[in-house]
Each structure stands twice: as C-alpha cells, then as structure tokens.
C-alpha cells in the first residue's frame, strides 16, 4: 500500500507539537507493508465458527472479566441497554462493512494477492483510512465560535471535533472486526476548546465508541443526554484528557502523549465491549509501524488501565451509576495574596490564585461553574482575566485605605467555588443521518446537583504611624534654634494625661517625633509642650492668637490633631513653628592701647569689631562695630554693645585697622560672648615700635687694589613679623677711595648700612654672593638679640672661608651685626659695578 501523504497540522499561533522527536506538522504517517499472501488468505478465509469459538474464550485472546458487581441504577440499566443495542448494531455494521471491503474469492483466484502492485495496496489502505478518519482537513481549518462563549467546560452545546492521524498500529484488516479490530486512528479533540475561557488554553480529547465506523473529524457532535459507564469515565479521568498532555495518573503514562491517547482510546473500546484485550493485543503485535518496545509499552499500559477500570475497589470517588462524584475528594484553595501596595487610584494586594483539586491531587478548575468572592465592605474585587475562576486581587480606593491605616484594618475575604457534583463521560452523537460513530468526552452533569467549597484568608491594612515635625525659631531673627526640649502628650477625653515621649532635636531648629500611633490617644488629639527653651531664650514660646493662648492656658502647650492627611493644628496658623524670644548675651568692649617697650598709652589707632558667620565658618569682612577713643579714659570703647545671635554664635574679633605712627604689626583679639545680660570686656592692645637693623662690612685697607674696582658687598634680610607676615630687604655697600682714606683705622675700614621701619619679628641676615676676590672670614653680633653660628668651609691663600648663619630677633629691640672679608686673589685687572634700583 502507498505511504500516507504528509498531514499538515496548522496549529494556533503556528504551534508545532513534537512527537517522537519530530513535529507533528512534519510527521509522515506511514502504514504497514502488506502481510504475506498466506497470512492474508488465512485472515480472509476465517469462517464464522472460528470467530464464534474465539468469542466464547477458547482462543488465547480472552477478554478480562468485568469485576464490577454493583447493582446498576435505573439510569445505568437504560444507558446499558442503549449501549448494548449500539454494540449489536455496530457488530452488524462491521459484518456488512467487512463483506463490502473483503476481496471476493474469485478475484483472489484470478490474480492472487501477491500479484497486486504496491500502488494498488496503498490505494486500498488509503480507502480504509479515509473511512476511518472521515473528511480530510488541517487542524482548525473549520471555523467555529461555539467554544468562545462557554464559561465552564460543559456539555450543553454542539462540539466540533478535529483530529490528527496516528497510524503506528495500523494493520491491513480493512475497517476491522471485533476479532481483528483496526487500530489506526486519529487523535481527536474539541476544536476551539482552548478559546473557552475556563478551558485555560487546553483542548479536551474526544474518544470514539465504535471503532469500525468513521471518525467525526470536522463534524459538530451533539450531546445526546447519555453517559458512559463508570469504567469508561475512569479511563477518561485517569487517562489522557487534554491535547499534548499525558495520562493524568502517572501509572498509565508511556512518555509519549500520542501513545497515551492511543492507550486511553483502546481501553475505552475494550471497556465499551467493542473488542477484547486479546484482540487488541493481536493487532498491536501485527502492526508494522510500531517498534517492539512501543508495542510492549502500549499493551502493558492498556492492560493496566483496563484492569484498574474493571476493579471495583478503584471507585471510591465514583457513584454506583457511573459518575465521578467530585464532591467526595474536592479540595478548593486560594493562595493568600501579597500585601497591599500602591497602584493607580488606590491600593491593591497581589493576585490570589485558586486551585480546585480532586482525586490524586489533579487540578480540575475548568469544572467550576460558580466563583464568588466576598470581602469587607469598601473593598473591591478585581479579576485578572475572563475566566470564571480567574485570579483576583483586592483593591481599596485611596481615601478609604488611608482611613483604615489610622487604626489598622483587617480585611476578611471568603471565596466560594461551585461545581456540578457529577462528572464523567458524556456521549455525543453525529449529525442526524450521518454514519459517524458516537463519541465520548469528559464533562459534567447537574443532574446530581452542585456542591460548594469555601476558602478564606485575611489581609491587613497595616496601621500607619506618623512623624510630626516642628521647628524652633528665634522670634526676632527667624533663625532656627537648637537645644530646646519638646514633649508629646496623649488625650484621655478631658485632659492630656499621658506623656508619650520627647522630640528628637535634628539640628538647625528642626525637631521630630516618629512612630505616632492614632490609637494611642482619643480621636487623634495630641499636645506639644515645650519643656525647656534653648539656651539664652525665654521659657515661654510666643503666643500667636487667642486659640493658641487658650491651648497654652488650659493645657500648657499647643494642640494638634492627626487625620488621614496628616496633622492639623487647632486654630493656629503655622502651628508647627514655635518661636522664642532670646535672652541676649551682650558685651561692651574697652581697649587699652600701649607701647610694648615702654607701656606708654598710645593714641591715633583705630579698632573695628568683626562678626562671626557660622554658615561660612569665618569672620565677616565688614565692621559690625567701630570703637571710639575716649580721651578722658584714654581707652577705645564701643558706643553700642555687641550681641550674641545664633548666626554669630557670640564670636567676634577685635581688629586694629589703623596703627599709631611709628608702629607696625596691628593687634587683634578673638572674643566669645556667652554670659547672659551685658558684660564689659577689658582688653589691652600692645604695639611694637618699628625696628632698625644695622649691618657693618669690615675689610683690610692694604688688600684693596683700586685698579680692580671699588669693593662692593650685598646683603639680604628675610623674616616674619609677629603677625606671621613675611618681609624681605636688600642692601649694598660700596667702598670708595675717598671713604677709605677718611675712615680707615688700624689698617681696617668699616662701612655700614641701616634698614629702618622693620616690623618687629624674627629675621635672617646673610651676605649675598661676595665681590670678586673676597671671601667671608668672620661675622660678629653687635647686639644681644643677634646670634651668629659660624662654620669653616675651606682655606684659601692663607684665609679660612666661613659660612655664617645670622639671626636677629627684632621683637624686643633693634639689631646690629658685622661681617669681615679678606681678599684672596690679586690676579689680573677687573672692575666692580653696582646699580641700585629704587621702587617708586
């Protein structure tokens, strides 16, 4: 026979289902190769006596006995009769079809089966499969909106059936008989079932009840009001129920969802009395399209499923008349959602998910027909999607949520799920006048009523605590004040009797009390008291108005009420700001001006007071006060006291901005005012007179060679005055013939230079690069405040050259020092020349 052509499976969203390593849409359905001639003749020529003998159990292919011994109900008897009648009709039709499909003996005699071509055999197989499968057509090719409008997966409407070929167990027996059943089949499912909201994207499988009639592919099957036996219902519940899903009970699984469907369908046929296990196993063994392992696995699982379905001990959840009683083991739960969180226009929990499980913990939410969520008044229930049993969350509008936050509200939620009590296999018939076989699929009936399961949970709107922020300011400057102590008090309905705690000083005049609980007082009323003012401030804060005064007189503080929107002060604008009047520390400054050397009182100076700025941590550049000279007292005084403020922190600097003539190094003094009231600060400003430094240069007269030029020497003076300021001076001395002639004494001549107006301080004196041919040989201090440290360097032409470290402390007095040089070189004629520049 020809190989079956490829069947293209068009799945929603281009889904490709993988089977045995290949996508179904790409699988090639291949039938068996033809049996050998002898075997085919033997099957064709089997007489009725042999078939009867096999039916009676003499053959090895015996049917597993039905162990269900319960008395059938009236419904069961009626359905049983209908089923028996249908089986007899199916048997007769099978015989008729076998006669039609069988090969006439005369044709066999003329040509013989071995003489048929492969094309002829494949044509025969195609004809058989077409009768089995019904009209051709890809999955979902026939459009239907029926499933779209169903809520639960019920049995109340016509269902459209579609299928995908599965012919691994095809055998060359035509349409087959009860003795040699044809096991080629399509995997049938309800088209568009996945669009039923409660089906949760799944397709229910459809199982046939007459193996040798055509399958209803592409047909609308109508529920006829009949139900299968509980044995078949057992198969449907524990076997493969949904497309691409394995048997629901692991015991019956094969690892291949398509093979699981085959196992379930064959079990249904056997339990429906259409053929025996042994007949099925014989055809499985004869199938050429399946491997030995697949055959063994299929027979093992079919045997298990049939035997368990025949075992009355496995029907704890089934009624006597064949339905699965879902109420017996149903367990309904909803997950407790996550806590409330802010969403648009309000607050919501996370979504809560329902589960509805029955025997062996199998989830069957699609059977729920009613789903009711009741919760606290003021809470809305929002569904996640259109399913009856949709995930849901709790939503509270913002105003309501904030109100409940004041006290902490427990939201209690109860969920009731309603489902039909009886589930099982509903029988569907083909359109009127068609020859398609009856089908069965898993559904429910309300004939036995419904049952309700309840689940509940509590979610709490967390009680919110609040933070009260207040400020403390200077009543005059508005500056923030630290150091105050505020307390919070709770109301008992008449007085504020309970102190709750102390505000935290956050700095900068800000105070905070956290964790304020609405339930700790009556109706949200609290009182703020100032227990202690900041340092140097009056103990009572400034009263704003009559309401503020009434609060203070009656309760000793300022009332504030906690609402859903925060705190509201009782009739007091800007009630969160407490102002205090300072008790200001002040000081009169008196400066006595004296000479550092003599102690003489000096006039002619000027003084300013500079104010500290804590924001920049420096003294301001402009004068806060200017002192005036009091001739009678011979003192410099402030005409108006300086005042401590929060911004200046009581710190000031008194600076001498002008010195008396002949004085340098202006005086200054930092002061801090801390004492309350007005005090007098007496200060003494000592000035050092300007200093004079005299430098002498001594050389030997007979060492002078005038042809070499006038001996010239340079000096540098560098130092720091008592204020830390640096100063630098430079001087030069030049010996001329006239000067030497007039001032030589004892063979030596000395020339001096004097530096005046030097600020008192400490200085270094050094001879700069010496004149040519002269070296420094000695340095001698001329006053007590000058020190000399000498170091020998080298002997040059009989003279020891030295290095001198000369220091002059000009703070207490003037200074004097002498440098002596000797000439060490007389070679050649040279010339000295010095130019002195004057800064104008």
From TrEMBL:
It comes from Blautia celeris. Residues 1-26 form the signal peptide. InterPro entries: Ig-like_fold, SpaA_PFL_dom_1. Residues 27-126 are annotated as: Disordered. This is SpaA-like prealbumin fold domain-containing protein. It holds the Pfam family SpaA. Residues 40-64, 78-98, 113-126 have a biased composition (Basic and acidic residues). Keywords: Signal. Residues 467-538, 588-683 form the SpaA-like prealbumin fold domain. Residues 65-77 have a biased composition (Acidic residues).
């Amino acid at each position: 026979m020809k190989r079956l052509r490829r069947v293209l499976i068009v799945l929603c969203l281009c889904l490709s289902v993988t089977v045995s390593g290949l996508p179904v849409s790409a699988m090639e359905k291949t039938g068996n190769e033809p049996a050998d001639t002898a075997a085919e003749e033997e099957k064709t020529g089997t007489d009725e006596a042999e078939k009867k003998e096999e039916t009676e159990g003499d053959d090895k292919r015996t049917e597993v006995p039905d162990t269900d011994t319960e008395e059938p109900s009236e419904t069961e008897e009626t359905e049983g009769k209908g089923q028996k009648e249908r089986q007899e009709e199916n048997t007769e039709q099978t015989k008729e079809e076998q006669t039609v499909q069988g090969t006439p003996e005369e044709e066999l005699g003329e040509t013989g089966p071995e003489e048929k071509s492969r094309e002829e055999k494949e044509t025969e197989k195609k004809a058989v499969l077409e009768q089995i499968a019904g009209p051709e057509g890809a999955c979902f090719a026939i459009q239907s909106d029926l499933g779209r409008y169903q809520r639960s997966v019920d049995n109340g409407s016509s269902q459209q059936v579609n299928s995908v070929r599965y012919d691994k167990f095809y055998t060359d027996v035509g349409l087959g008989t009860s003795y040699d059943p044809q096991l080629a089949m399509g995997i049938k499912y309800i088209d568009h079932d996945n669009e039923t909201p409660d089906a949760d994207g799944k397709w229910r499988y459809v199982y046939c009840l007459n193996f040798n009639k055509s399958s209803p592919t592409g047909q609308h099957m109508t529920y006829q009001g009949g139900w299968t036996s509980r044995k078949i219902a057992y198969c449907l519940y524990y076997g493969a129920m949904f497309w691409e899903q394995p048997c629901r009970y692991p015991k019956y699984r094969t690892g291949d969802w398509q093979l699981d469907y085959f196992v379930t369908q064959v079990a249904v046929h056997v339990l429906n009395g259409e053929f025996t296990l042994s007949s099925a196993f014989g055809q499985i063994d004869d199938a050429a399209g399946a491997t030995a392992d697949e055959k063994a696995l299929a027979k093992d699982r079919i045997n298990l499923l049939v035997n368990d379905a025949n075992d009355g001990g496995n029907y704890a959840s089934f009624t006597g008349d064949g339905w699965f009683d879902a109420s017996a083991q149903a367990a309904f739960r909803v997950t407790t959602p996550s806590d409330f969180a802010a969403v648009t226009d309000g607050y919501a929990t996370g979504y809560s998910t329902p589960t509805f499980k029955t025997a062996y913990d199998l989830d069957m939410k699609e059977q729920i027909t009613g789903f009711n969520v009741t919760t606290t008044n003021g809470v809305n229930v929002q569904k996640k999607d259109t399913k009856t049993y949709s995930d849901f969350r709790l939503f509270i509008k913002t105003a309501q949520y904030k109100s409940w936050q004041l006290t902490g509200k427990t939201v209690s939620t109860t969920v009731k799920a309603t489902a039909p009590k009886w589930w099982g296999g509903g029988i569907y018939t083909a359109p009127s006048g068609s020859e398609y076989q009856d089908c069965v699929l898993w559904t429910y009936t309300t004939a036995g009523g419904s049952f309700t399961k309840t689940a509940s949970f509590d979610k709490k709107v967390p009680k919110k605590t609040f933070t009260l922020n207040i400020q403390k300011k200077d009543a005059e400057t508005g500056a923030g004040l630290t150091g105050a102590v505020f307390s919070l008090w709770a109301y008992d309905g008449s007085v504020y009797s309970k102190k709750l705690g102390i505000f935290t000083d956050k700095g900068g005049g800000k105070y905070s009390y956290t964790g304020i609980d609405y339930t700790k007082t009556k109706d949200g009323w609290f009182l703020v008291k100032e227990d202690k003012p900041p340092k140097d401030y009056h103990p009572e804060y400034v009263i704003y108005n009559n309401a503020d005064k009434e609060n203070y007189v009656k309760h000793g503080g300022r009332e504030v009420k906690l609402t859903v929107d925060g705190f509201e002060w009782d009739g007091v604008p800007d009630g969160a700001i407490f102002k205090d009047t300072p008790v200001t520390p002040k000081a009169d400054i008196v400066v006595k001006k004296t000479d550092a050397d003599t102690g003489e009182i000096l006039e002619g100076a000027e003084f300013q007071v500079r104010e500290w700025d804590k924001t920049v941590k420096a003294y301001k550049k402009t004068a806060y006060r200017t002192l005036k000279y009091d001739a009678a007292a011979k003192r410099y005084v402030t005409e108006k006291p300086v005042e401590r403020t929060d911004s200046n922190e009581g710190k000031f600097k008194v600076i001498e901005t002008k010195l008396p003539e002949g004085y340098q190094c202006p005086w200054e003094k930092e002061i801090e005012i801390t004492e309350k009231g007005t005090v007098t600060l007496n200060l003494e400003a000592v000035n050092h007179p300007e200093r004079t430094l005299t430098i002498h240069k001594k050389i030997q007269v007979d060492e002078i060679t005038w042809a070499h030029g006038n001996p010239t020497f340079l000096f540098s003076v560098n130092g720091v005055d008592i204020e830390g300021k640096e100063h630098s001076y430079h001087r030069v001395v030049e010996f001329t013939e006239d000067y030497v002639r007039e001032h030589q004494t004892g063979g030596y001549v000395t020339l001096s230079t004097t530096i005046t107006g030097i600020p008192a301080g400490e200085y270094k004196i050094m001879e700069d690069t010496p004149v040519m041919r002269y070296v420094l040989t000695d340095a001698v201090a001329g006053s007590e405040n000058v020190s000399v440290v000498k170091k020998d360097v080298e002997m040059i032409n009989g003279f020891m050259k030295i290095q001198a470290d000369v220091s002059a402390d000009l703070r207490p007095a003037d200074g004097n020092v002498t440098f002596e040089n000797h000439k060490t070189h007389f070679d050649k004629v040279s010339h000295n020349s010095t130019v002195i520049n004057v800064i104008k």
